[in-house]
Design brief:
The structure holds two protein chains of two kinds.
Chain A: E1 4-7, E2 10-13, E3 19-25, E4 31-37, E5 43-51, E6 54-57, E7 64-66, E8 76-78, E9 87-94, E10 106-107, E11 111-115
Parallel strand pairs in A: 2-11
Antiparallel strand pairs in A: 1-3, 3-8, 4-5, 4-9, 5-6, 7-8, 9-10, 9-11
Chain B: E1 4-5, E2 10-14, E3 19-25, E4 32-38, E5 45-51, E6 56-59, E7 62-67, E8 72-77, E9 86-93, E10 103-104, E11 108-113
Parallel strand pairs in B: 2-11
Antiparallel strand pairs in B: 1-3, 3-8, 4-5, 4-9, 6-7, 7-8, 9-10, 9-11
The chains are: A mainly beta, B mainly beta.
């Protein structure tokens, strides 16, 4: 069954703790992305990675970190430095490097993080 | 500075009628546009896209129109169905090597009443 898996669906953490959100894909897509969604806001890009062992900051990278050790996996760590970590986090994939035409991004089901 | 704007936070239509969702953009470098549909607590689902070389793209009940001179695009849903009730996001991207970054609007909540 092909797709994007994000786990867990709901996550609770105490303030000051780091937490890592999982994102796994078996679509063989080269690029992976992390977004957050807040009420009344669009999706804002946190980090993205176009190939293994390489990633770039998005628009709101402060307080977050990522790694891309495998093509299938792109975990996001929300650190204690993130001022407002409570949000809905979405992972997306896309972008076959072989394609000339720009590709579409496909989203996982999301993780709702609540920091108490 | 918002580069992609969806000025209507919400829209309500009757089942069977047309739904028109609007989106404006300011970055003249954008050349690829997408519409996503999102239910609460789920990830967005890709609906339809359009390249700037076209002014219309149709897929079943969904049609996207692009007016480059006005930097405006719209999504038409005909006929609207209750299952179409969701938040719709407009997104855009600019060319730049293999950089597939998307810029999203804030979304429009569509409610289709039976």
């Amino acid at each position: 069954d092909g797709g994007i898996t994000q786990s867990p669906k709901y996550l609770f953490r105490k303030e000051g703790q780091n937490v890592t959100l999982s994102c796994e894909q078996n679509l063989n897509h080269d690029a992976m992305y992390w977004y957050r969604q807040d009420p009344g806001q669009g999706l804002r890009l946190i980090y993205y990675s176009q190939i293994v062992n390489d990633f770039q900051k998005g628009d709101i990278a402060e307080g977050y970190s990522v790694s891309r050790e495998k093509k299938e996996s792109f975990p996001l760590t929300v650190t204690s430095a993130q001022k407002n970590p409570t949000a809905f986090y979405l992972c997306a994939t896309g972008g076959h490097k072989q394609k000339v035409v720009r590709d579409t991004q496909y989203f996982g089901p999301g993780t709702r993080l609540t920091v108490l | 500075d918002q580069q992609v704007k969806q000025n209507s936070p919400s829209l309500s239509v009757q089942e069977g009628r047309i739904s028109i969702l609007n989106c404006d953009y300011t970055n003249s470098m954008f050349d690829y546009f997408l519409w996503y549909k999102k239910y609460p607590a789920e990830g967005p689902t890709f609906l339809i896209s359009i390249s700037s070389i076209k002014d219309k793209n149709e897929d079943g009940r969904f049609t996207v129109f692009l007016n480059k001179s006005a930097k405006h695009l719209s999504l038409h849903i005909v006929p609207s169905q209750p299952g179409d009730s969701a938040v719709y996001f407009c997104a855009a991207s600019a060319p730049g090597g293999s950089n597939y970054k998307l810029t999203f609007g804030k979304g429009t909540l569509l409610t289709v009443n039976p």
